[in-house]
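Researcher: Please generate the 3D structure of the following complex. Treat every line as part of one assembly.
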Amino acid sequence: MPIIVNLDVMMAKRKISSGDLAKKIDITPANLSILKTGKAKAIRFSTLEKLCEVLDCQPADILEFQKEDSHADEI
Amino acid sequence: MWNQDKSLNLSILLVRILFVLIIVLALCVPVMANWYDIASPDKTGLIAGSVFWPLSICLYLSAVFGEICLYHLYQLLKNIRNDIIFKSENCRHLRYISWCCILVAIPFGIFGFWRSLGFFVAFAAGFFGIVLRVLKNVFVRAVEIQEENDYTI
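Model: Done. Output below.
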């Protein structure tokens, strides 16, 4: 997927553990893991808002758009 | 009071009964084929002559596909009872059931050359198979929506 979730980078910058973050934004550690590993299909604005609030950052710090390599399939 | 669980349990019970019944009927195929060969009033088929062997082969094949179909239906009903509904496993079961119906239609379609009744059975089985195929495609879409919902954080 061309949207990259850089949550682990922000968590490392803010020195916060997964358990703590999950507790603060009120989601289960399992769901946070889905988000961190990039398995998530979508993110709610409310979750993004809480993440930005707790990590003191902008949505762009967490989410990044990367163009897919169009030649990847040909190789 | 009649409820969804009772419907499911009844369906599972009927599938089990039908599973055993098909095995019993498969053992009686020579008798049934012989009886039909003598008693069949329909002599309008394109191929004349005895239908003993065509009908026997047709019924044996149908029994095999029928058992496979019932096995997958049983698994599907069990999953629904366990609240595992919109999962790709159920799509797989529906796909197998649909294929079994279509595969039953083929021997009956061939049997139709001996007795035109075979064409009607083939049409019914084929039609049911195609309807199930559509249902399977709906299920696949539902599984996608369910997964999207599950992975929305």
